[in-house]
Amino acid sequence: MFRHLKIWRERRILQRHPLSDSAWRHALVHCGPAQRLDASAQARLRVLATLFMQAKALEPVQGLQLDDGMRALLATHACIPILNLGLKWYRGWHSVVLYPGLFVPQRQIVDAAGVVHHDRSVMAGEAWQRGPVILSWEAIVQIGSPPGHNVVIHEFAHKLDMLNGEANGFPPLHAGMHARAWSQAFHAAYRELESRWNSNQPAPLDPYGLENPGEFFAVASELFFQQPLALRDFSADLYSQLKLFYRQNPGEA
Ligand SMILES: [Zn+2]
To answer: What's this model's pTM, rounded to 2 decimal places?
Structure first.
């Protein structure tokens, strides 16, 4: 009964708020991971992006003007990670705040010693536990340069990670996945990235991932969808854990 109700509600949303062909085309042209999908997966992505735009409030600030193509592009990138998981994986929060350029969060952080710091680093995006995702449109336009970077997938990967607490690189794994295999794959890839960074050797993964396990999961997720073969070459074990988690195999598409 509830399943029927959900399907009925979703159908009604799709009828009342369809994603126009031109907005969808705009999104596809600017979303590499979506281009790699076959036609039926693209059709599912379009439905999911449409539902996403109704489920989440997209809130432009500082004079940013959002048109339908921009909204569709953001929703399409955001729905790539959950294509085979479903919108329920983005539960518990409801807005995406969009700045025109890079932004400077004015907040106070209290450290373990009780000292308040004013964090004034310039941000391309951030994800708050149970709060909004905040993104810079300038950073969204730059997705794919450098190759493998995708700020939207990065922040939404943090959201998935936060489903079971703080962003620690350990999102809720599916039945049949093994925490140990996950940890081993991530630790080995982390150490490999660290050793390449220390010896000035190139690596496809953004060294920002060395900040902490949560950031490592987010940058690995970016690369998994943006340049799947580069990630698979770097670490086949990490690739297969992400394949199990996201239930996608972008390297085979
Ligand atoms: Zn991050």
So the answer is: 0.91
Residues measured by CB to lie within 5 Å of ligand 1, the ion = 215, 218
Q: Which amino acid type is present at position 62?
A: Q
Q: Identify the CATH number of the domain defined by range 1-142.
A: 1.10.472.150
CA of 20 to the centre of ligand 1 (A): 32
Q: How far is the CA of 216 from the centre of ligand 1 (A)?
A: 8
CA-to-CA distance for 28 and 38, rounded, in angstroms? Answer: 12
Q: In the chain, which segments carry CATH 3.40.390.10? A: 168-253
Task: Please report how the helices 21-29 and 39-55 are oriented relative to each other, as an axis angle in degrees rounded to 10.
Answer: 110
- Whole-number Å distance, alpha carbon 237 to ligand 1 midpoint, is 22
Residue partners of 238: CB distance under 8 A and separation at least 6: 185, 186, 188, 189, 220, 231
- Each of the 253 residues of the chain gets a pLDDT tens digit; together they read 567 888 888 888 888 888 999 999 999 999 999 999 999 999 999 999 999 999 999 999 999 999 999 999 999 999 999 999 999 999 999 999 999 988 776 565 556 665 555 555 667 888 888 889 999 999 999 998 888 999 999 999 999 999 999 999 999 999 999 999 999 999 999 999 999 999 999 999 999 999 999 999 999 999 999 999 999 999 999 999 999 999 999 988 6
Query: Which one of 3.30.559.70, 3.40.800.20, 3.40.390.10, 3.40.50.300 gives the CATH number of domain 168-253?
Result: 3.40.390.10
